[in-house]
Amino acid sequence: MKKNVLRPLLVMCFIFLMVAPLWAVSPPAVGGQLPDFQLSFPKNSADKNYLNISGSLFSSSFKIPQIGAQVVVIEIFSMYCPYCQAEAPNVNSLYQKIESNPALKGKIKLVGIGVGNSEYEVGVFKKKYNIPFALFPDGDFKIHKLMGEVRTPYFIGVKINADRSHQVFYSKLGAFAGVDQFLNEIVALSGLQ
What we know:
The chain has one domain (about 25-190): Glutaredoxin (3-Layer(aba) Sandwich), CATH 3.40.30. Helix 3 crosses helix 6. Mean pLDDT is about 90; it is low at about 15-25. By secondary structure, it is an alpha/beta fold. The protein has helices at about 1-20, 45-50, 80-100, 120-130, 140-145, 180-190, and strands at about 40, 60, 70-75, 110-115, 135-140, 155-160, 165-175.
């Protein structure tokens, strides 16, 4: 009798182990859309102004396509990631190059999402590395799970259309080779001219 019960149980466990990877979420694919998630409105007025978020004044959260830009570059980071710490000056330089270029300013926006980081931890990272753009906490890893549990730093480029639909045009792990090269790639891949 025990043998008859044990065999189907082993078969079910084997099938589950074979099928489980199919349920895993992949990172946002080029040509696809971002997963459906919301971020809390920034408390800092400079971040609110920079993002130029469209929508209800009474809403406490927003989605990436509501950002007032044609292109949004999302950095998935963690304050504890040494690679993210090392990349912070390059990302700041990217921000400065965008903001100092009249052809790009207002068209490309940067945001950071701190996976596993609380609001306090994101604030520490922002202050320590003098990050000039909005950073958002993902302390419960909900967004991270939706993003395929990517390692950090991970960069996602999103093209936002006039009707607020969007499409991912860039999705890669790791530091970018150079600020100018990365910016040129973002401009070219997004079709922004």
